[in-house]
TrEMBL record:
The keyword Transcription regulation applies. The lineage of its organism: Bacteria, Bacillati, Actinomycetota, Actinomycetes, Kitasatosporales. The keyword DNA-binding applies. Keywords: DNA-binding, Transcription, Transcription regulation. It comes from Streptomyces litmocidini. InterPro entries: HTH_ArsR_DNA-bd_dom, Metal_resp_trans_reg, WH-like_DNA-bd_sf, WH_DNA-bd_sf. This is Helix-turn-helix domain-containing protein. Residues 242-312 form the HTH arsR-type domain.
Length: 313
């Protein structure tokens, strides 16, 4: 169990990241690529991305020889460029100690890693930056618009809960175990003491494991937690075109945008059609067993069925 210890001051320093952060999201996606479980939903996504990753991205694997990456990669940054600049700004002694940690007891060290350790050389940083950029273009760029949409929805939910019910309710909506200044999350045993540094909440839409914690000296602790619909994000591709040939382009697009339950009005806005048209398409998909519709008060929400999820490209 992860235990996050708050002081009174820390409760005034909790904030929700206002926008998604490209570098942590990229690292979450790369970690998910190496995770062997959930093959039914993630197998095709994993295979597609592994085929798409260019050779220039291969050095990133050198940074996590045992599946554990150095902590100097733990940065935020609201743009990719800002994130890369923060990585490169890491103190040389911190970079060296982290490389020694992840390579302790391991065999041969790649030459560029040795260069980064010995000199913090400019060429080694350029290798890393090229790898980060190449991985971003292959993994995140095609779905970044979806990540932004999902983040806005998550931010809105958190903000509404905070405004209506207070900070405690907003935190326990993410994980219910908040007692006596200690917030518990299911996961590997770990004690994190904020000690006045505050906490940044960062949803991630690729990672499906336990919460990821960035806990570095003199920085706010960052808690990256799995959010979204629990499904892999995928760009449009041949599979979607084939599905459109069967369902029709609008119904195929409707199924694709149901990454989470959405109202008829939300669907209409995302599809660029009228509410009546969106409702008719949802009804057709519901009749085919691909969508469920539930009514709560005056709101109607649509969500994909397991079969509808599996049909997504």
């Amino acid at each position: 169990m992860l235990h996050i210890h708050f002081t009174a001051e820390d409760f005034t320093r909790v904030r929700f990241a206002p926008r998604p952060s490209p570098v942590p999201e990229l690292h979450a996606a790369l970690m998910m690529l190496g995770t062997p479980h959930e093959e039914l939903l993630f197998g095709r996504w994993r295979g597609r991305l592994l085929r798409a990753l260019p050779g220039a991205a291969e050095p990133l694997a050198d940074l996590a020889p045992g599946g554990t990456a150095p902590y100097f990669l733990d940065v935020l940054g609201e743009t990719r460029e800002e994130g890369l600049a923060l990585i490169r700004a890491a103190r040389p002694e911190f970079v060296r100690s982290e490389l020694e940690r992840v390579y302790a007891g391991r065999g041969a060290v790649p030459p560029w890693i040795r260069d980064l350790h010995a000199t913090g050389g400019g060429e080694a940083w350029r290798v890393l930056e090229r790898a980060q950029r190449a991985a971003y273009e292959a993994v995140l760029a095609p779905v970044w618009g979806q990540v932004q949409d999902l983040h806005r929805a998550e931010f809105t939910r958190y903000a509404l809960t905070l405004a209506e019910r207070g900070l405690g309710a907003a935190l326990t909506a993410l994980a219910p175990g908040l007692r006596d200044g200690v917030w518990e999350w299911p996961g590997a045993p770990r004690e994190v003491r904020l000690a006045g540094r505050g906490l940044v909440l960062l949803p991630t839409f690729h990672w499906r494991g336990g919460p990821l914690v960035q806990d570095l000296p003199d920085r706010p602790v960052v808690l990256a937690y799995p959010a979204g619909g629990g499904l892999p994000l995928a760009p449009s591709g041949p599979g979607e075109d084939a599905l459109a040939g069967v369902l029709g382009r609008t119904r195929a697009e409707l199924l694709r945008v149901l990454t989470e339950p959405r109202t008829t009005t939300e669907l209409a806005r995302r599809l660029g059609v009228s509410n009546a048209t969106a409702s008719a398409h949802a009804a057709a998909l519901r009749a085919a067993g691909l969508v469920t519709t539930t009514r709560t008060g005056r709101s109607v929400h649509h969500a994909p069925t397991p079969l509808g999820t599996l049909l997504k490209p």
